Amino acid sequence: MTRPDLLAALKAEREIRKTNPQRSPNVEAICRTWPPQHRYRKVELAEELWPRLQEKVRRDVASGGRLRVPAARVGVRALQTALSSYRRQIAMRMR
User: Fold this and answer.
1) The Cα angle at residue 48 between residues 22 and 16, in degrees rounded to 5
2) Across the 95 residues of the chain, what is the mean pLDDT of every consecutive 10-residue run?
């Protein structure tokens, strides 16, 4: 599978609900027909992609502007929620 093929398959899988409301997107479905040594699991994929996402979020936060990376916005919202609790010291370790 070429990179453009993989990107197209990922895009199609993300949009699966539009054509089949009973089905949720599943990135593992893309590699089901691949040889076993080339298949991946969601956790493995997430671990491989984590450094890139982490760098994007760090750059986004450091820019000081409006957060453009969705994961950064979700993280900030989670932090705000945790810090607004009267039990915030329990919910999140403070440095």
Assistant:
1) 15
2) 87 89 88 86 89 93 91 89 71 55
